[in-house]
Amino acid sequence: MFRRLLLDNWTGIFTLVAFVTALSIYLSITWRALRMPRVQRDHFANLPLND
Fold first, then answer.
1. From the centroid of its chain, how far is CA 32?
2. Rounded distance, CA 11 to CA 16, Å?
3. How far does the chain reach from its first CA to its final CA, in angstroms?
4. Using CA atoms, how far apart are residues 8 and 4, in angstroms rounded to an integer?
5. Cα dihedral angle (34, 39, 45, 48), rounded to 10 degrees?
6. Rounded to whole angstroms, what are the CA distances from 38 to 16, 19, 35, 46, 47?
7. What tens-digit pLDDT sequence spans the chain (51 residues)?
8. Four-residue CA torsion sign, 32, 38, 41, 45
9. Residue 29 has what pLDDT?
10. How far apart are CA 51 and CA 36, in angstroms?
């Protein structure tokens, strides 16, 4: 029973690490997009529409 308790704690840690990793990636992409210059933002916004 004690061995099962130790393994259950490890799965919780891996879940937490995966969540923190995904959150940090999302926040870094959001921060970079918010700090992007307006000219570059407009260029990226029109990029799929250019021929």
1. 12
2. 9
3. 65
4. 6
5. -140
6. 36, 31, 9, 12, 14
7. 556 656 666 677 888 899 999 999 999 999 999 999 999 998 888 887 766
8. positive
9. 96
10. 24
What does the chain come to in residues?
51
d(CA 21, CA 17): 6
Please tell me the distance from the alpha carbon of residue 19 to that of residue 16, in angstroms, as a whole number: 5
Token digits of residue 12 = 């919780």
Q: Which residue, 32, 34, 12, 13, is CA-closest to 24? A: 32
Q: For the full predicted model, state whether its pTM sits above 0.70.
A: no
